[in-house]
């Protein structure tokens, strides 16, 4: 993969474990390898953003303040991120920012001062890939147990975890170390800035997530994302089967691709 200028991450079930309608910062748990993967990108100078559907706001299930608190916790554990773009709308609002629409990706790229086509979007469901595609960005899917088989099959690239995805993104990085430093034994040095684990990733190709300040959470007006905004936990449909957003609900996936309560497999 040609080295991108920025990597945009979905939030729930990509950067942090999905907790339906979570308004509690104490419930934020990073996904495996997230910290290491993000730091690897930062060391290489890539800019990082978060693009997140947060329809809980539009559904009246969470307050913006609650979401800001959760996002601040994500930032404290995994950040700082250079840009946040969140969609606060409910699916029926017909906005242009809710993934799979391209608005969040376009907005995050704008905030970062890069072109969407110079971005990679890493997410866990098909709508993340579709948003990337619609915006002209590249997509890398890191599935969870709730990712649908057809979403995996149609993804431009699939990696088994975040570290593999980041290694894939960095694979063609011209600054990538070409040789293993002469060391008696592998292991981290001082601040851990060694090989970065840039060895070819154990991923498998299928064909082919603000700056600390200024987290203005915009209004709920349809038509635009919350620039730098941190929105609420996503909508979680209660009915069984796929929802209007094409996501599975009822203990498996919810309206924004989130696990229903207790539904997250280990
Ligand atoms: Mg997700």
TrEMBL record:
Q: Which residues cross the membrane?
A: none
Cell compartment(s), UniProt: Cytoplasm
Origin species: Streptomyces gobitricini
* Organism classification: Bacteria, Bacillati, Actinomycetota, Actinomycetes, Kitasatosporales
Q: Which family does it belong to?
A: Belongs to the GmhB family.
Major localisation: cytoplasm
Q: Which UniProt keywords apply?
A: Carbohydrate metabolism, Cytoplasm, Hydrolase, Metal-binding
| Name of the protein in its database record | D,D-heptose 1,7-bisphosphate phosphatase
Q: Where is this region: Disordered?
A: 171-246
Among its keywords, does the record have Metal-binding?
yes
Alphabetical list of SUPFAM superfamilies matching this protein: HAD-like
Any Pfam family hit: Hydrolase_like
Return the Low complexity bias intervals: 223-241
Top-level taxon of origin: Bacteria
């Amino acid at each position: 993969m040609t080295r991108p200028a920025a990597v945009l991450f979905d939030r729930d079930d990509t950067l942090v474990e999905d907790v339906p309608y979570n308004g509690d910062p104490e419930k934020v748990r990073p996904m495996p390898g997230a910290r290491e993967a993000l730091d690897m990108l930062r060391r290489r100078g890539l800019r990082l953003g978060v693009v997140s559907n947060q329809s809980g706001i539009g559904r009246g299930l969470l307050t913006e303040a609650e979401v800001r608190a959760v996002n601040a916790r994500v930032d404290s554990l995994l950040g700082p991120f250079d840009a946040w773009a969140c969609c606060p709308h409910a699916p029926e609002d017909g906005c242009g920012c809710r993934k799979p629409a391209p608005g969040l990706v376009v907005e995050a790229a704008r905030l970062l001062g890069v072109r969407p086509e110079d971005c990679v979007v890493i997410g866990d469901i098909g709508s993340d890939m579709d948003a990337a595609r619609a915006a002209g960005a590249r997509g890398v899917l890191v599935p969870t147990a709730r990712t649908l088989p057809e979403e995996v099959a149609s993804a431009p690239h699939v990696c088994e975890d975040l570290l593999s995805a980041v290694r894939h993104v960095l694979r063609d990085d011209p600054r990538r170390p070409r040789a293993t430093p002469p060391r008696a034994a592998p292991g981290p040095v001082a601040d851990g800035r060694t090989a970065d684990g840039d060895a070819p990733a154990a991923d498998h190709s299928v064909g082919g997530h603000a700056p600390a300040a200024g987290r203005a959470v915009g209004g709920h007006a349809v038509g635009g994302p919350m620039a730098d905004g941190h929105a609420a936990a996503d909508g979680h449909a209660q009915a069984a089967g796929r929802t209007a957003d094409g996501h599975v609900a009822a203990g498996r996936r919810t309206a924004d691709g989130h696990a229903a309560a207790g539904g997250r497999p280990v």
